[in-house]
Amino acid sequence: MSSTPLPDAASGPLRRYDLDWIRVGAFFLLILYHVGMLYVSWDFHVKSPRIVEAVQPFMMITSPWRLTLLFVVSGAATRFMVDGFEARGGRAGRRLAGSRILRLLPALLFGMFVIVPPQSYYEVFQAAQWLGVADPAHSPWLQDFWIKYATGYGGWCDADGCLTTPTWNHLWFVAYLLPYGLLVAALVGLPGKPLDVLSRRVERACAGWGLLIWPILWFALLRFTLAPIFEVTHAFWGDWYNHALSFGAYLFGFLMARSEALKANFMRLRQPAAILAVLAWAAWATYAWIYRADDAAPPESLRHAMRVVYAIDQWAWIAAILGYGARYLNRGGPVLRYLSVGVFPFYIVHQTVIILAAWYLMPLNLPLPVEAGLVITATFAACFAAYEIARRSGWLGLLLGVRPRSGKTPDQAANRPPLPA
To answer: Facing residues of 162 across strands?
Structure first.
C-alpha cells in the first residue's frame, strides 16, 4: 500500500467523530470498571465486604487495554489540536504547550487537593476498622485529616505499607498526559517536522497485517523486558513500563490520526482483530482464574506464553474498537458535542463519588445488584451535575477541565478538533 499524503493543515482540522465516540465510551466503561473494583478481590481504596470473584473474568475484558486506548485517542486528538493551531498561524508547539498546561494542570491540582482526599480518608478509615480501632473517626490517624493529607503525613500505615499523600489516585492519567503533551509540543516545534516524517513511516509499517503485527510485537517486547522489572505504580518516576506503554500509545495515536490509509486498514482488519481479542481474553482470563490464589506458581513456560497472549489481548481489542468505530461511529450531533467535553469532568469526579456512595450504601446491606445499581446511578448523576456546574462557571470551570464557552455557534463548534482528556 502506498503512503497517503497528510492533508495540508491550512485546510483546517479534520473531524474524527469515531474517535470522539470511542473516547466517550471508554470513559463510561472506566466508570463501570471502578464500580466493579468495589466487589472483586483486587486492591482498591475501599472494598465491599461482599466480594464476588466470578465478576473478575468479565472485568478482565477491559482491564488490559482501557487506559491504553484512551492514550491512543488522546494522542490522536492532540494531532488535530496541532492542525488547528497551524491553520490559525503557526507556533503550534508553543500554543499546544500552553493549551495543555491550561487544560490539565488546574484540574490535576484541584483534583489532588479537593476531589481525591475523601478517597484517602475512607481508605484510612476502613483500614483502621480492619485493624480493630474502636473509634476510627476520632483516632489520631484521622484528626486534622486534610492538613495531614496536604502536608505529606507519613503515619497512615498497615501491614501492606504506608499511604503517601498528597496523591493523585485515578488522576494519574491526567498527570501523565501533561508531560506527554509537553514533549509532543517540543517535537512539533522542531525544524523539518520530524513527526510528520515519522507519521508516514508508521503508515507504511502498518500497511496490511502490519497494523496488527507490529503493535503486538511492541507490547510483547515490553512485557518481556520492562514489565518484570518495573511494576506499574502510577507514581510517575520509576514507572518505566507504564510510560513505555502509555506514551507509546499516545504517540501512535498522534502519528496515525490523519492517515486515511490507516483508518481504512483498521476497518478492513476489524473482524480478525475482534476474533483475536476474544480468543486472547478467553485464554488470559482462564489463566488468571486458575492461578488466582496468592501462592499460585504457574510454570515458567506458561508465564512466557501468557505475556504474548496479554500483548495480543491489549492490541487486538484496541484495533477492533478503532476499526468498528471508524466504520460505524462517523456521525456527530448535539449529544456527542455535549459528552465529548463532559467526559473529562466525569473522569475527575467519578471515583470519589463511587467511594462515597458505596461507603454510605454498604451498611444498609441491600441486595448486591440494587447496591451496585445505586452506586452507578449516583455516580453518573453526580458526574452530570459536576459538568453542568463547571460549564456555567466561566474560568473556574478549568478546575474540572472545562474551558469557558467561546460564544461560537453550534456549527462552528462542530468543526473544532476532538478534545483530548
So the answer is: 157
Cell 461560537 found at: 408
CB 343 within 8 A of CB 107: no
Report d(CA 58, CA 282) in Å as an integer: 10
Can you point out the beta strands (E) in 138-223? 157-158, 161-162
Q: Cα dist. 299→282, 287, 289, 291, 310 in Å? A: 19, 11, 15, 10, 16
* Cell numbers placing 198: 515519522
Q: Which residues of 261-280 are buried (b: 16+ CB within 10 A; e: fewer)?
A: bbbebbbbbbeebbebbeeb
Sign of the four-CA dihedral 116, 405, 28, 306: negative
- Over residues 107-132, mean pLDDT: 91
| Residue 182 pLDDT > 80 | yes
Parallel, antiparallel, or unpaired: how do β-strands 157-158 and 161-162 relate? antiparallel
d(CA 405, CA 385): 17
User: In this predicted structure, which of 67-76, 150-159, 296-305 has the lowest mean pLDDT?
Assistant: 150-159
Q: Which three cell numbers stand for residue 113?
A: 487537593
Calculate the CA 139 to chain-centre distance: 36
Query: What local confidence, expressed as pLDDT, does residue 177 receive?
Result: 97
* Beta bridge pairs of residue 301: none
| Residue 2 identity (one-letter amino acid) | S
Q: Which helix (H) or strand (E) holds 321?
A: helix 300-328
Among 104, 102, 51, 31, residue whose Cα is nearest residue 74: 104
Contact 162, 154 (CB under 8 A): yes
Percent of the chain with pLDDT over 70: 92
The model's pTM: 0.91
